[in-house]
Amino acid sequence: MLSVVTLSLIILAGLVPPKALAQIARGYFLRSQYFVEYYLQNGEVLPSSAADLNLTTPITPTETIMEMLAKVDRDRAEVDLRRLTGEEPLCIKSGCYTITHRLTGSQELEWTMEYLYENLDSLGYTVRFADWSNDRNLIATKTGVTSPTEEIYLVAHVDGVRQSTERYPAADDNASSVVNGLELARVFSNYSFDRTIVLFFSTGEEQGTRGVREYLNSLSSTELAAIKYVINRDVTGYDANGDGVMELVHGSHPPSVALAQVMSEAIDAYQLNLDQRMIVGCP
After folding, report:
1. How far is CA 100 from CA 16, 43, 182, 203, 238, in A?
2. Around 10, how many Cα atoms within 13 Å sit in the side-chain half-sphere?
């Protein structure tokens, strides 16, 4: 979790060159090629080489990010994870419930979204639901101080599927990313940022990212242009072979390599004590 938190903090602090981040965002928005397609259709070109990304500035630890990292509470995040996967009751204003799955359109996903809403609202975010045809997304906003019309999206899908024999339904895919998003929200609540922070919790991801697609389709060209940088978090707790190694899986195209490199450098710069390895393994 700390590696994803660190990368998020580095981006918010402006320590990665904007040109590189813009290209990374366009390549990775909401775990879908949909956003890339939008930009290509509108005449924008993704980089063709690593040099185009301008990734020449080394990551230097800052006191502010170190302070933020110290506020990340792993035990608190684990409690959230247990609640989202039915290991202990999830309590909201209407009562306490045991989550046995988080299927899109289900009552249990609705309870989970209410849990997120109540937590984010209590932290002072502007929180709203954005309905789509089969469910709704949750959007929590912290308005920027100097550039409020420029938005940084931090994304995780809340819906998940469950195999019949699973004890922890959708714990990795994608409760692991949801709880680190909630923990980020807690840390961020005590700070101000130049740009507007948007914590986006989607549904319908397991049905072809439908919640995200319908959300994007609902935005105007001005609203789309306001989205400057994006970090999507999915299956952040995944360790298929149980070796304890954090595998930074990337594709062969420059934005994918660049994102993995930034994560690797962040882990080293902030001494996160993670055994990491860069691996080519996705489109």
Report:
1. 40, 45, 20, 17, 20
2. 26
**Dist CA 173 CA 101 (whole Å):** 11
Q: Which two three-digit tokens encode residue 142?
A: 């912290």
> Could you tell me the fold of the domain covering 2-280?
Aminopeptidase (3.40.630)
Q: Where on the phi/psi map is residue 95: left (φ > 0), alpha (ψ -120 to 50), or beta? A: left
The sign of the dihedral angle between the CA atoms of 96, 101, 105, 109 is positive
pTM over 0.90: no
What is the three-class DSSP state of 245? coil
Grouping H, G, I as helix, E, B as strand and the rest as coil, residue 62 is coil
Residues of the chain under the 50 pLDDT cut: 10-40, 43-52, 56
Residue 49's pLDDT is 40
Structure confidence at residue 38 (pLDDT): 45
On average, the pLDDT of the chain sits at: 81
What residue spans of 51-202 are helical by DSSP H? 63-70, 74-84, 107-122, 176-188
- For 78-102, write each residue's pLDDT tens digit: 999 999 999 999 999 999 999 999 9
H or E element in which residue 214 lies: helix 210-218
What sign for the dihedral angle of Cα 164, 165, 171, 172? Answer: negative
Residue with token string 């938190």 = 5
Strands 195-202 and 246-250: unpaired
- With contact defined as beta carbons under 8 Å apart, do 1 and 72 qualify? yes
CA 246 to chain centre: 17
Indicate if the alpha-carbon torsion angle 89, 92, 95, 99 is positive or negative: negative
Report the C-alpha gap between 35 and 61 in whole angstroms: 31
Tokens of 277: 């390895």
Domain boundaries, the chain: 2-280
